[in-house]
Design a protein that fits this description.
alpha+beta; 4 strands; four-stranded antiparallel beta sheet
Length: 120
Amino acid sequence: MKLKGTMTEQAYRKELIASKHHLFNDSSMRRFLNVIRETFPTMTTAHVLSWTPEQGEDIISFLVDTHSVITVELDRYEKTMAPIVEVYPIENWMKGLSKTFQIKIAVAFDLVKNDLIQGG
């Protein structure tokens, strides 16, 4: 998908940049970041694609570098409980997504490519 600089794209870009900063700098996200790093030891960058807060757990999907989406489910209260992790090649994960979410993925992909060029 080709980016056109629309207001929607700009809003996603702002949201994705903020979520990446939150992921890498906020201690509340440390468990998620650790799971990503354990799963992808050579990971350079990641962006939050979606966040589903459930009653006792959080389920977050991340675009990792340019190749994968990882979905991590962590219990909010039971810190010793093992995370539930699912990994998808980006091509498989995008099938059947709404046009709006495809725009978000395209913006995230553009940000990841820029991150990789700049070294993270």
